[in-house]
Records
---
Amino acid sequence: MSDAVKVGFVAFSAAPRGVLVVFCDDALKFGEAARKALGKAADTVKRAAAASQFKGKSGATLDIPAPEGIKAERLIVVGVGKAAEIKEKDFLKFGGVTAGKLNAASAAVTVIAELPDGAMQADAAAAIGSGLRLRAYRFDRYKTKKKDNDNGALHADVSIAVEDVAAARKAFAPAGHVVDGVIIARELVNEPPNVLYPVEFARRASQLRKLGVDVEVLDVKAMTKLGMGALLGVAQGSTQPGRTVIMRWNGGKKGDAPVAFVGKGVCFDTGGISIKGAASMEDMKGDMGGAACVVGLMHALAARKAKVNVVGAIGLVENMPDGNAQRPGDIVTSMSGQTIEIINTDAEGRLVLADVLWYVTKKFKPKFMVDLATLTGAIMVALGTEYAGMFSNNDELADRLSKIGNETGERVWRMPLGAEYDKQIDSQFADMKNTGGRHGGSITAAQFLQRFVDGTPWAHLDVAGTAMGAPKTDINHSWGSGYGVRLLDRLVAEYYEATK
Ligand code: MN
Ligand code: ZN
């Protein structure tokens, strides 16, 4: 992964280098360390603020090249709005906004992590560092030519000046691993489908072994033996064989039931015989965003040595319209023994998940399972790209996810499940069919998945609108967003890790 921004911490007393970044509130008030760093440039700031109508609103910036009176190459003032109204996720935003202002000339950067009323807490300073790295990430591996106006990639060495260097470093160590996890997920989603097919995806997931994760790759033979007929039915239309990857991180007490995360990994989805239209079909390389999140999450948890037992499981296939592809009308037998009539081969994600969810339920008896899947276009009709759809059979788990979603900014909105929807997926020939018609399409998909969790506390996140192609944000300019890594890492940290 290309790291455009390197983040370190220094004391307030260290002399600023290169680009200087300071924060002010909506009364244009600066803290003591910032005032000291600004020195004689304070007056320049005042005049520049008036000239550009900068009012210190949260996330607004004032950019002054070669400011008079100080050594800084450039001065960037970032507004924080009303200090009393700042939320945790705003610090990520401040870091992201800062990174958005940097360019190839910003070799060295000093950020004074201070609010008008005093130094930022270690967690807040660390969040600034995370925001910087998240925003600076870009996927340009396949660009061999630079555009005229592109004078090179950003390679900034950022020093965040803080009151307590040791505390900030301690807070940033785990946070940095989480950022790595987000970037791994983004990278997987952004990769083209000729490069990232199931076997290659499994190989990349296997790199988690370096962190002490136990990785098991089930090939077609192994999955056939297990009876994963639903997943294999999808995979059979591609020359690229499918895989299921089981990743285990055992950081908790021996014998403690694990928490489990399951991801849909359709490396490319043509729709199969029920083929999609040509418009935007290229986006279907991102139909593995759920699996990408699970790999990124496992990285974060293992790298920061989370004190918990975790299972990550991903079903990897390519959904192609080959001569051997499954047909509408086919009936497949899932690992659970339940039979499924295929109505539309483009409703393949639930078929993949059905077998992986069942496998995880039976093999690991987890405390809970969360699955992530770019499952339905219908979830975008309902929620747009701001929230992932959440479906759950467990109020406690759902409430926790909602709360953490609001804190981290990776938000979820709970949608209903209910026996009333079952009739939409009744089949006249098999135990169920794989689509429930146009109405409530995300709900009937979730209702289908629920039949494969056997009562395990479970939440399904439909991330079709959030994992890829979502509008750019202050902390993400990448097509693959890495959605879910921060949300689920925090869920684990806050509720399921042994206290240190
Ligand atoms: Mn599909
Ligand atoms: Zn799909």
---
Amino acid sequence: MDEYLNIALPKGRLGDQSYALLKKAGLECPELEDPGRRLIFTSAENKVRYFWVKPSDVAIYVERGAADLGIVGKDILSESRPDVYELLDLGIGKCRMCVAAPKSFEDDFRGTLRVATKFTGCAKAWYGAKGRDIDIIHLNGSVEIAPILGLSDVIVDIVETGTTLRENGLVVVEEIFPISARLIANKAAYKFKEQRTRELAGRLSEVINE
Ligand code: PRP
């Protein structure tokens, strides 16, 4: 076991939960537990290197081989469709991709539906499959206010507890797909580090099911 495993973690709550699972699975890294402002952490003992990256960038690091493995939400995988292996559903970071709208909204299927979202790919695929004509409005956040201000008819966004929708007078109209965090692997790295990667995926799977 000479080679290091390089793992990109999503900075934030999901990253903390992910590291907790990896630690239980045997890849502890004390440096990461006292991070300061650093973003790269190494454990020579466990032959692992972790990187804290923006959640939406994890798949980029993995696809391009800067990281061997990464942990990323299914929402981001569905949106950006990176060329990576999806190895395991970690069962954390659970939420749903939904269409939401003001309570009074009813689609009369006439004209073009205005859809505000960060997830333009997911929204286009969802409405494309139904043959519904839409006008996509790409926003970077605070999507919930778009229907309130008349910018859009509906939104496509992540719903976890439903609090953000509720507090902005919106309701779920349709559920598009369930979301959870996935362990992903770079395709070439998977080949070269197959044994270590498989072992880790196996241990993680045990930890999740404990
Ligand atoms: C997501 C999503 C909603 C909120 C839903 O935003 O865009 O705004 O979480 O969570 P809830 O159902 O528990 O209220 P996130 O916190 O990821 O921030 P972002 O808008 O910056 O992406």
---
Amino acid sequence: MKKATATAHPNIALVKYWGKRDEALILPHQSSLSVTLAPLSVTTSVEWGTAADEVSINDEPAKGSELKRVIAMLDLVRGGHGFARVVSHGNFPKAAGLASSAAGFAALAVAARAAAGLPRDVKAESVLARQGSGSACRSIQGGVCVWHKGSRADGADSFATQELTERHWPELRLLVAMVSREEKEVKSRDGMRSAVETSPYYAEWTRDAEAEVPRALAALRAKDLRAIGEIAEKNAWRMHATSLAADPPLCYLKPQTLEVISTLAGLRRDGVPAYFTLDAGPNPVVLTDAAHEATVEAALKKLGASSIVRCHPGGDATVS
Ligand code: PMV
């Protein structure tokens, strides 16, 4: 029996990936940049040599498309190792408002390779994780990672690299605010496909996002909260605008999302640095720093956020 266990953090993109040029290999139209989120993590163990593939996620057998995606990743590593048992646990509830797929596929990629006796190789792990969930390629390493879109048809040059470690700016805070518990109606996969195929703004979006990556990196390197906050907000608005202009139009925002956004603008007028980003859903992630975390959290609570998870930059995926 060959077994390994790996732990990875989720990440939040400040310059987003929104649209694939290859759906099967998960190759994006633009590069993206993210920060890993500690203390949130997913721990996954893979044991090769079982009688059949068995997958359990948070103590429940995986089913449907989730199961298919895990098995598709095992297929990429399997070789002569046969079937595997996969057991995965997240330390945060799905209800926290964060997609767990980035951390889940990153931990699975690292554990599956390690259990197969392959040496650690962050590039190979990132390429593998990308094929489970695009954003997972940015959860192999900690701190700030950039997913380079690449240009090859086989995806060998489409992976993430670490640009700043989690020790660069430990005072950075990312507050995940759950304002709406409604299930999202349109999955990222389908939302991005409709933007690529029908939004008249799509080409401009990719051009704009690509140019934003070096600017975001410079702002993070300088620990300039205002500069990175303004870039993150602008990028999130533009991603959502691309989908609002799709046919049929796709709106992930809820009234409570807009309430948070206008409250943050009010906080800034009072000298409190707080900026949002939004994935494909209504729950904002708020950027601030350690000195203003309590003030921002209190304002979000007052707005009725049902849960707020305080995060800071996390480290690399590890094998235990
Ligand atoms: O990796 P996926 O399929 O979960 O898509 C992620 C898409 C966004 O979260 C909206 C943006 C991003 O870059 O993470």
